[in-house]
Amino acid sequence: MYAIVELGGRQWKVEPGARLEVNRLPGAVGAQHVVDRVLFAQNGERLQVGRPYVSDAKVICEVVEHRLGPKTISYHYRRRENWRKTRGHRQPLTRLVVKEIVFGEGVAKPRRPKKKEASDGA
User: Fold this and answer.
1) CA dihedral 8, 65, 15, 32 (to 10 degrees)
2) pTM of the prediction?
3) How many domains does the chain have?
4) pLDDT for 122 beyond 60
5) In angstroms, how far is CA 11 from the centroid of its own chain?
6) Domain-located, residue 88
């Protein structure tokens, strides 16, 4: 199951267990963030395209951390005038983990890898 959602002015393809870094969202670390702007949702053979949003679909995420993005330097100058200006910027970001996708009656959660049984080499 996957979905395409609109979040922070961008479109993201998400699956259960996916990690996203989006523009800063209000909410504490560990809080739940529900995204109801689902543009497209697919579950096996069943898919639905929203016009513009799918009415019965939502994506439930958990806020993992708030952080700052990489520093970008902006440098301006005017020739022959001894005028220059340097500014730095770090975009505030929020890191999310997709917990589940709710679509109609179906709920998709992240898969856990199967534990391998220890085999005796004797």
Assistant:
1) -80
2) 0.76
3) 1
4) no
5) 9
6) yes
